[in-house]
Amino acid sequence: MSTLRVALVQLYGRPTKKECIANAIAQIRLAKDRGAQLIILPECFNSPYSTAEFGRNAEEIPRGETSQALARVAAELGVYLVGGTYPERDGTKLYNTCPVFGPKGELLCKYRKMHLFDMDIPGRCTFQESATLAAGDRFATFSIGSLKIGVGICWDKRFPELTACYRALGCDMMIFPSAFDPYTGPLHWELLGRARALDNQMFVALVSPARDPTTDYVAYGYSLLCDPWGRVLCRAKEDQELLVTDIDLKLCNEIKQQIPILRQKRTDVYELKAKK
């Protein structure tokens, strides 16, 4: 496999969870019709992004209705499906979780957001995920052929150590379902995606909800996919949009040979490693 067709699915929210799921599945089918092999949904696509709503919309993964619907469509279409994120209930705890389903509908992995979105820019954006959600503490990876892919969620991409650990685990691609706000989005969204791609010589996908100014939390939009050179391969705008593009899997090895920074790291002086 020298190329992989990837779909980034930027979705509007809908009034009910059932309608959100139906909208996502309709777009997944369109992505498959366009030849996508890997399909990625945005952060919190089946629930309002609100600490007041997380508990009301939370479900078990993979036994909940959203997981079951995504598993069925992944198996029906024979695709790899990154299920964006949605609130997960595990006992008394709630997590912001990204599940990944394989082409037989199997749960390949799930990632619980490790760095919670606690930010306070007065008059611009204030949010505190930690008021409701617990933080994850495990990396999550899956493979498509020889391509190993790591999963993070939104705020996680602000922490370069996380992506560097995924690179040390052998990942050549990172996926971040993300819901940035319209203030920090223009400042940092593309910059962070390109920086994580360039620093680690990997593909990086950022997949956002569409922008809806009527919601309490307004997402930035502008989903994008960067290549290992740090170039933006495709970019959405603000509305619901389906991006489909081919990535050249030979690029990672070529760049690692041409600009061999990964093997030039001074592990005799400094070191970064995953603990779990």
From TrEMBL:
**Pfam families named in the record:** CN_hydrolase (PF00795)
Gene3D superfamilies linked to this entry = Carbon-nitrogen hydrolase
Q: What's the protein here called?
A: omega-amidase
What's its EC? 3.5.1.3
Q: Does the keyword Plastid apply?
A: no
Q: Provide a GO CC annotation, any one.
A: mitochondrion
Q: Which InterPro entries match?
A: C-N_Hydrolase (IPR003010), C-N_Hydrolase_sf (IPR036526), Nit1/2_C-N_Hydrolase (IPR045254)
> What are its GO biological-process terms?
asparagine metabolic process; glutamine metabolic process; oxaloacetate metabolic process
Organism of derivation: Anopheles minimus
Q: Which reaction is catalysed here? A: 2-oxosuccinamate + H2O = oxaloacetate + NH4(+); 2-oxoglutaramate + H2O = 2-oxoglutarate + NH4(+)
Domain of life assignment: Eukaryota
